[in-house]
């Protein structure tokens, strides 16, 4: 009799433990708001739940991945009604955004509309951009650092640019100096990750810049370990398969010019202390530099574009620390050969690309992408900016950023690389 009681007691205790484990795990996962109605690259079959579907994409998944996928998809119905209500509210408040921030007030905006013809052109552009990327990722004769590693080989800290919106099933890899401030604002509105007096922001331009770039505002892949523990990689892979993934890129040399202008031609205390002081000492032979950027600017002590290029080419730079995100290569930020992006936007066609992407994501009725600046750094400036940079440096710089040029279809700047 004693053995039978012990057996029953053991069964009860194990059952209670399993229930508690499921409750704890569900508490973590249930807040994810899986609302996957936007994956335009992988259409769903009629009548299927827009989350976990049967098919060849899922046959290769390990058992634990399949279990997690099914578990996560069960929250769809609950979140669908909540999302529909939220969308109704967003529609009521949509329309032409009210420009509220000083930065946006002083810049000129283009509110032009986009017609059906543009959509047809956009579809062709996307096909070509994705084809170029995939061909060079598969080309064994074209090599660059980290190309051959798998997704599992990427450390978590290198996944901090992948922002996740579980409500709409979207993953955005942000690239600094490529309209990332406004795309982050869009992600905040869609994910409702930031509140204004208890209410989620509806208009992207209402969100202050200091909140936009606060890392606590966004759910990124590198945060998954703290939230999901040992299941984090499995969940990443599931989301990468089912969510719509996008990024925006820019001519690599023009992006460098833009980074230099914003971080070293304007007074920026952080970048002055972290980068400008070492550059001025190493490449301009300055000593006893002021401790504040305002004092330095007042004394006419500024980093030159030549100093900046020397810094990028200096082998000691990477040994000390990885490139800052504002001039780190896109292939190191977004891992385009390990992640199969569904949409590749370009700053050069930002207005058209953004309008088309929001339409494909089926969120264009909720918001509009903040219109582009008319005074952004132009590609035509390259010749002037690089005129005083020695030819050998320009050639080295191209090799440093060659992968970004090639993968994203930017022509080699031959005029800068020859006498």
Automatic annotation (TrEMBL):
GO terms for cellular component: Golgi membrane. It is found in: Golgi apparatus membrane. Pfam families: Sulfotransfer_2. It is a single-pass type II membrane protein. GO terms for molecular function: sulfotransferase activity. Its EC number is 2.8.2.-. Keywords: Carbohydrate metabolism, Glycoprotein, Golgi apparatus, Membrane, Signal-anchor, Transferase, Transmembrane, Transmembrane helix. GO terms for biological process: carbohydrate biosynthetic process; proteoglycan biosynthetic process. The chain crosses the membrane at residues 7-26. InterPro entries: Carb_sulfotrans_8-10 (IPR018011), Sulfotransferase (IPR005331). It is an enzyme of class 2 (transferase). Belongs to the sulfotransferase 2 family. This is Carbohydrate sulfotransferase. The gene is Chst12.
């Amino acid at each position: 009799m004693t053995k039978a009681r012990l057996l029953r007691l053991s069964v009860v205790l194990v059952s209670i433990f399993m229930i508690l484990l499921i409750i704890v795990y569900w508490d973590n996962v249930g807040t994810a708001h899986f609302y996957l109605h936007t994956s335009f690259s992988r259409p769903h079959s009629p009548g299927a739940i827009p989350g976990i579907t049967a098919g060849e994409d899922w046959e290769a998944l390990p058992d634990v991945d399949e279990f997690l996928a099914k578990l996560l998809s069960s929250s769809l119905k609950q979140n669908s009604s909540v999302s529909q209500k939220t969308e109704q509210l967003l529609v009521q408040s949509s329309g032409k955004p009210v420009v509220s921030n000083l930065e946006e007030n002083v810049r000129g905006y283009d509110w032009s509309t986009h017609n059906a013809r543009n959509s047809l052109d956009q579809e062709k552009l996307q096909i070509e951009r994705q084809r170029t990327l995939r061909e060079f990722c598969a080309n064994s004769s074209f090599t660059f650092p980290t190309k051959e590693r798998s997704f599992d080989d990427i450390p978590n800290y290198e996944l901090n640019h992948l922002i996740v919106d579980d409500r709409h099933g979207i993953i955005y890899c942000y690239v600094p100096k490529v309209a990332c401030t406004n795309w982050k604002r869009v992600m905040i509105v869609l994910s409702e990750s930031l509140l204004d007096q208890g209410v989620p922001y509806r208009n992207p331009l209402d969100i202050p810049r200091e909140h936009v770039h606060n890392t606590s505002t966004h759910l990124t892949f590198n945060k998954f370990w703290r939230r999901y523990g040992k299941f984090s990689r499995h969940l990443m892979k599931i989301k990468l398969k089912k969510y719509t993934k996008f990024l925006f890129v820019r001519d690599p040399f023009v992006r460098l010019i833009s980074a230099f202008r914003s971080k070293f031609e304007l007074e920026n205390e952080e970048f002055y202390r972290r980068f400008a002081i070492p550059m001025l000492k190493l490449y301009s032979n300055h000593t006893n530099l002021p401790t504040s950027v305002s004092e330095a600017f007042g004394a006419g002590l500024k980093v030159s574009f030549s100093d900046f290029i020397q810094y990028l080419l200096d082998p000691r730079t990477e040994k000390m620390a990885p490139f800052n995100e504002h001039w780190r290569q896109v292939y190191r930020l977004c891992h385009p050969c390990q992640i199969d992006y569904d949409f590749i936007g370009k700053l050069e066609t930002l207005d058209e690309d953004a309008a088309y992407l929001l339409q494909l994501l089926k969120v264009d009725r909720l918001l509009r992408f903040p219109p582009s600046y008319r005074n952004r750094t132009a590609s035509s400036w390259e010749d002037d900016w690089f005129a005083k940079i020695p030819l050998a440096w320009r050639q080295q710089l191209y090799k440093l950023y060659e992968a970004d040029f090639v993968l994203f279809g930017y022509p080699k700047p031959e005029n800068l690389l020859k006498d």
